[in-house]
Amino acid sequence: MHPKVLSAVAVDVKRTELWEIEMPEIPPDAGLLKLEAAGVCGSDWPAYLQKASGPRILGHENVGTIARIGAVAQKRWGVKEGDRVALEEYLPCGHCATCRTGEFRLCDATDPWMGGIRYGSTPVTVPPSLWGGYSQYQYLHPNSVLHRVPDHVPAVEAALALPLGNGIEWVSTEAGVGVGKTVVIQGPGQQGLGCVLAAKAAGAAYVIVSGLSADHKRLELARRLGAGYTVDVQREDLRSRVTEITGKKMADVVIDVSSGGPATVTSAVELLRKRGVLILAGKKRQAIPEFDSDRLIQRCVTLKGVRGHSYASVERALELIASGNHPLSEMCTHQYSLREVDDALKTTGGAGSPGAIHVTVLPWR
Amino acid sequence: MHPKVLSAVAVDVKRTELWEIEMPEIPPDAGLLKLEAAGVCGSDWPAYLQKASGPRILGHENVGTIARIGAVAQKRWGVKEGDRVALEEYLPCGHCATCRTGEFRLCDATDPWMGGIRYGSTPVTVPPSLWGGYSQYQYLHPNSVLHRVPDHVPAVEAALALPLGNGIEWVSTEAGVGVGKTVVIQGPGQQGLGCVLAAKAAGAAYVIVSGLSADHKRLELARRLGAGYTVDVQREDLRSRVTEITGKKMADVVIDVSSGGPATVTSAVELLRKRGVLILAGKKRQAIPEFDSDRLIQRCVTLKGVRGHSYASVERALELIASGNHPLSEMCTHQYSLREVDDALKTTGGAGSPGAIHVTVLPWR
Amino acid sequence: MHPKVLSAVAVDVKRTELWEIEMPEIPPDAGLLKLEAAGVCGSDWPAYLQKASGPRILGHENVGTIARIGAVAQKRWGVKEGDRVALEEYLPCGHCATCRTGEFRLCDATDPWMGGIRYGSTPVTVPPSLWGGYSQYQYLHPNSVLHRVPDHVPAVEAALALPLGNGIEWVSTEAGVGVGKTVVIQGPGQQGLGCVLAAKAAGAAYVIVSGLSADHKRLELARRLGAGYTVDVQREDLRSRVTEITGKKMADVVIDVSSGGPATVTSAVELLRKRGVLILAGKKRQAIPEFDSDRLIQRCVTLKGVRGHSYASVERALELIASGNHPLSEMCTHQYSLREVDDALKTTGGAGSPGAIHVTVLPWR
Amino acid sequence: MHPKVLSAVAVDVKRTELWEIEMPEIPPDAGLLKLEAAGVCGSDWPAYLQKASGPRILGHENVGTIARIGAVAQKRWGVKEGDRVALEEYLPCGHCATCRTGEFRLCDATDPWMGGIRYGSTPVTVPPSLWGGYSQYQYLHPNSVLHRVPDHVPAVEAALALPLGNGIEWVSTEAGVGVGKTVVIQGPGQQGLGCVLAAKAAGAAYVIVSGLSADHKRLELARRLGAGYTVDVQREDLRSRVTEITGKKMADVVIDVSSGGPATVTSAVELLRKRGVLILAGKKRQAIPEFDSDRLIQRCVTLKGVRGHSYASVERALELIASGNHPLSEMCTHQYSLREVDDALKTTGGAGSPGAIHVTVLPWR
Question: Is residue C89 helix, strand or coil?
Fold first, then answer.
């Protein structure tokens, strides 16, 4: 094993450096992951633009093989050296009421803003430094949440486990989409396309995806992934289209994963039928200037703020990926080496190479 | 039977006249209710202040005995002349997809804004005129939804069936409150107090009710109905109090039935724990100026706009009333005769006699 | 319109006669259906073998066009003469607590054993006699539950609305099957194959269908409808196969629609993982000799007895049929004229032409 | 601290000896509990009658204070030396799919029959021996599930946390009992009485408890805990009584916690209304000779085998106990010292002192 680990460290706003970090000691209840691929999440872009509390290795959609594992961890996790796994970003405590009721992603220990640690967020000043995926190796903390990945799955597709897990969580578990439902998905990025797959898998009758003119390639892919209809909101009125497509029945569910501005929240309410559900997953980073809560009452509409995925949804995601039944390779648009992590981030943020959907860092390339 | 029916007709904004209306013919699938009591709903006050499409008999929390019934209706409804019933305000079609799935209160036929008819809303110009409860008799349309009322229940308490049914619907069915939950109820009016009873009945561990200084009598009654804590928001900070009472765990559920202004919606979100549910039942009649939808995402909070009650909730409400286990008579603060309907409405709206919680019109007084 | 209606009347055990029945008067709240197709349900076979309380027209999976409709019914049902509809077998009262909560198929009025009337069961001695589908016309009682059928759907496929509606009800609504689940379906008849379609539509990962050697054609069709695996229980051990296919995870859900004998209930429990659900839909007509209820406790297993379909499930079924995405025509194996109703029944019961899955009577052939 | 721990070890069928066991070393991720009280579960009686795989310390309803705790455990569990806790019997792995979805009580690691360890079951040959509650000290394994117990709660009442947690789990979570429901509880032992409390807490309108003539003291206590009706099945016909009490509506839910024989399962089905739920929690240790599964179909009845409690239900139970609102001390009928563990077990099993409901061993008495 290499005595030093090569890692791409975000040292400042929009600046990444290659560092050599000491290979850590592995205690009996921990392990070490040799990365194969680390997906670039949409949230990595704002993280990259922000002044952080210290240098850190970004990257939390991580897939690799177990390079080392302590005896206790091996027994607890049920994996051994050489096994292939996908990691969740969360490091839940496992003992609080939240963890005990299966909602571990909401455990305070997973929340960097409450002093918790999280893959892809925690600075290198916290030992043993290797907290992110844009690196040859990642430390496997005792609280890691792992999923087995079959050998035949390409690494770049396995790195979709978390965004696709989000789609399944939001569409099936949170919104309750099932056979015959009508779903509108606002925003055709990696999360939105994950929702398209999830909605089709769950039996939705109508899947309608909206985006901007600049999204036309993404909208095309949405159709190949199963969306029956796509709407360019700069050329067509979304409400009129949904009215027409559904024969005035409107949508059972709207998933808002767009990040443009708050207007999509207000307009989404009008796409819903009575008793409809609006899933809010895309942060706006600004307040809605005029929000009519009475409209929710008149139409008995539910708004649900959601975040991340459950264990079961990531398992489901990996099964869908492993089935080979979906053109997921088309979502994997760009791959970069460790030296090119700045490019990977810029491409994801729309400030680099065009046409990005899901970008991956391949640390050993 | 009297050849003419005495009814209090709202002829213009804040003006009610006593009219004599022709006793209607009763077709085989319809009936006639002799009113005992008609509760004044909080929504009657804005209705009273609004220019309507025509003169109408207000009053939709109606209790009485079957005075006449057609042979078809008798078989369908399972009641006969002399039986005592409480009426729902809705007249659902019974045949659309909404009715067929038990959600009849959302049937388009129940919606006056879509050309539907509804007790307490439909003008006297629609034959046979007797559509409201502030009247000696009310026409029982073939689509009526009736509930049996035991003989021993005082009429003024039976007239609480709908507001208390709302409480049960919102607290149990919509918010899922069960044993050990913490519930904050914003607004101690008749709807809010109905929610207090419903929350206690469902096993909530902490029931906290907030109101204004002017509500101090209502807050006292809230405590007698089972609220463990009441908070005068003009003297205490609600968030601090909820933090303190719950040991920082915050609320599982907030029910907002206040009608003051939009501020309660924004502040309610901050009373909730992660995964909390905010039930919106009080209309604001104005937009929220700065609504932070990202806050819902951060805390995984659900906002649910709700309206009215299901059949089952009204049945549950009548059982609670009939049990005699709750000091419901204290909610019944004012009773008026048909000649005093203007006073009844003003008292409900806070522009008449003080101390109103639930006001009733007794048409035969 | 014809002054007389030609109907196939089951006059005795295994004996059907063609009768000419008086065309009924149609009251304002009723109608008349001109039949296009009447599916033969599996339950028609035991009905055909039983001594009934009087002669009756069997057939309750009925599709046709509205031949006549009263003014009241036209408004209530939202259909007019010439419209194409599928009928449910139930005639619910619409006013009891069961109907008001969306569970109308359990309304006492739908239950012939409680004096209710039902299409395909009620004797011709109850006026106006035309209660079944093996007839040129069927009376549309005021309590009829209708579904619109698009013009492009072949009548024999539309006649699958009820069995496929059952599949959706049992698989999705009752068993909660969703994305990634493993479902075993015992019995590859029309109900079982409806469950296959429903399970695939709901996103089940593994659909395993078991049957006898004589069912090999049905098992083949099960695979074409989406089942990944079929098991001939006379040649293979079902439990071993499920263990192997699922990698020892076993099934989330077993649907038992077989009618052979009680053994399938006991064995089904052993196919389930902890917390699994066994849906009982196939009647055994005999008791289970040794039933180990402790086994349900050890494995936290749920047994659910189910019957029929909700309104929503039949709507979903008609959408799936209308989509044209499934090889449903292959389920439609046999069609008979009114004169051949005895053959239709025998073929369904396995006592006539071989290879039957769904048999239809075409009354105007 | 004492160098030796005094423990009551079940060495053979119906034979307990006092042993002095070595005080264990406590690793950083473990702890040691000084017991205050150990409840005797109904299941301890059959365990006591059975030939086991080795000597073991029974007792798994354990309450005490943290005597020692490792640094890692202190941080993970959020407790420190001197804190008062109640323990669950389960030692879940925390990492498998079952644990990750909140169902840790079904984790294979909790199952002694699959090689797992469990408090009150694991033999003393497994180091460090102190696996049960009938002992001065109990080892706190790293996988322990703890609940905080307020100081003011008497230890014998705190020892009700698990049986009452079962009641809440079965009545609320499994059966969905809420406001206005009718619940029949078959068997007035500690589990049944826990169900009575849970049903009242959840707002059940009718709580009916059945038992034998010998149970008359227990039935009396059931009434004091909130049951409206009790039925001695040796003097009255339970079905007739339920019919009468409910005005023929029958029960929404039956909880069968009786252990007599299989007859209660068959008869329970007949107490249910359509769509009713039968919770099976009492093991019969023999098969039901004639079980009519068709009856479940006719009445759309659900049978649910259940076992144990979730984390949340035990928290709810401790809140109910701490509230002081219920006459729980009356359930605490007998207390024994370590020297009297044989008596404690015999009293629980009905072979010792009469009138037992909940028996507790007080190890320091």
Answer: coil
CB contact (8 A) between residue D145 and residue A97: no
Strand order in the sheet with A302-305: A229-232, A206-211, A182-186, A251-256, A272-280, A302-305, B302-305, B272-280, B251-256, B182-186, B206-211, B229-232
Alpha-carbon span C20 to C34, nearest angstrom:
15
Select from A295, A300, A305 the Cβ nearest to the Cβ of B300.
A305
Provide the 8-state DSSP code for A316. H
**Could you tell me the two tokens for D108?**
């294979």
D273 to chain C: nearest residue by CA?
C106
Q: Considering Cα of D109, then D114, then D116, then D117, what sign does the dihedral take? A: positive
Instruction: Centre a 10 Å sphere on the Cβ of residue C78 and count the other Cβ atoms it contains.
Output: 13
Q: Which residues of C touch D103 (CB under 8 A)?
A: 275
Tell me the C-alpha distance between B268 and C195, whole Å. Answer: 45
Residue A112: which pLDDT band, with cuts at 50, 70 and 90? confident
Q: Up-side HSE of residue B126: CA atoms within 13 Å toward CB? A: 19
Q: Give A268→chain D minimum CA distance, Å.
A: 31
For residues A204 and A198, give the distance between their C-alpha atoms in angstroms, rounded to a whole number: 9
Radius of gyration of chain D (CA): 20
Q: How far apart are CA C273 and CA C246, in angstroms?
A: 10
Do the chains contact at B283 and A292, CB–CB below 8 Å?
A: no
Region D223-248: mean pLDDT is: 97
Distance CA B341, CA B56 (A): 13
Closest CA to C6 of C155, C138, C141: C138
Asked if ipTM goes beyond 0.90, one says yes
Which residue in the set C281, C297, C304 is minimally distant from D280, CB to CB? C297
Query: For residue C3, what are its two tokens?
Result: 């002054």
Whether residue B316 lies within 8 A of chain D, CB to CB, comes out as yes
Instruction: Please state, in angstroms and rounded to a whole number, the distance separating the CA atoms of residues B139 and B142.
Output: 10
Q: Is B107 helix (H, G, I), strand (E, B) or coil?
A: coil
Q: State pLDDT tens for residues D24-43.
A: 999 999 999 999 999 999 99
d(CA A141, CA D13): 46
| DSSP strand pairing (D84-87 vs D61-69) | antiparallel
Euclidean distance between the first and the last CA atom of chain B, given in angstroms as a whole number: 17
Q: Calculate the dihedral angle through the C-alpha atoms of B178, B179, B184, B185, rounding to the nearest 10 degrees.
A: 60
Give tens-digit pLDDT for B30-77.
999 999 999 999 999 999 998 888 999 999 999 999 999 999 999 999
Instruction: For residue D179, give the nearest of B180, B202, B205 by CB distance.
Output: B202
Asked if the Cβ–Cβ distance from C305 to D295 is below 8 Å, we say yes
Q: Which pTM does this prediction carry?
A: 0.96
Query: Cβ separation of A293 and B265 shorter than 8 Å?
Result: yes
Taking the C-alpha atoms of residue A259 and residue D351, their distance in angstroms, rounded to an integer, is: 70
Closest to B224 measured CA to CA, from B197, B195, B258, B184: B197
CA distance D231 to C108: 29
Chain B, window 1-30: residues with a beta carbon less than 8 angstroms from a chain C beta carbon: 29
d(C-alpha C279, C-alpha C269), whole Å: 10
Which residues of B are less than 8 Å from C71 in CB distance? none
Residue D338 φ then ψ, to 5°: -60, -35
Q: Does B94 touch chain C (CB under 8 A)?
A: yes
From chain C residues 229-268, the ones with a CB under 8 A of any chain D CB are 262, 265
DSSP 8-state code for residue C106: G
